[in-house]
Amino acid sequence: MIKEINNRGLACPQPVINTKRALEEIPQGTIISIVDNEVARENVLRFAQNAGCQVSVEEKNGEYYLTITKGEATAPQAVVTSECSTGPMVYLITSNTFGNGAEDLGETLMVSFFNSLLEEPAPRIIMFVNSGVRLATKHSRVLEQILKLVERGTEVISCGTCLDYYKLKDQLAVGRVTNMLEILQNLTGEGKVVTL
User: Fold this and answer.
1) What is the pLDDT of residues 123-137, one digit of tens each?
2) Which residue segments constitute the domains of the chain, with CATH numbers given?
3) Which residues, in sequence order, are bridge partners of residue 54?
């Protein structure tokens, strides 16, 4: 039986996430991931190839049907975890937007980042500094995703000086307040550090 995954109208990275989940549900077999734009087509294609699957792409009326086969006839999948020899992941989030440029685009990219992060092993800790502390407050667009990471064991801490500066301490909705000494200890301690 071939399962179809309808990814029409979905923004990045959701088509890749849906395809990944469908492949994780089967030990071997074929799925068809349907997307309606070239960016999604390329992202799903690259993901499936990197996962060691065979992929063919067919275009029909402006939509792309990616037939992805997983199993014995395909190359073995590489196992990638975030807790390899470098230790558990530590994220330092320094802004409420992802990257520089248009603020609304940066906010959208940050939502996309946290949605993607939910598909990986949970990081050991996420630290918010500067305007990044806004992401841990009541009106954050990524609060739901951060709470899910906390349920999976991620510790969340926010710089107290930063919360005070932005007058947000009373709006903190996840995690706890910390100081620069603890942030420094986490940056220099065990684990690979990623700064955004």
Assistant:
1) 999 999 999 999 999
2) 3-70 (3.30.110.40), 89-195 (3.40.1260.10)
3) 69
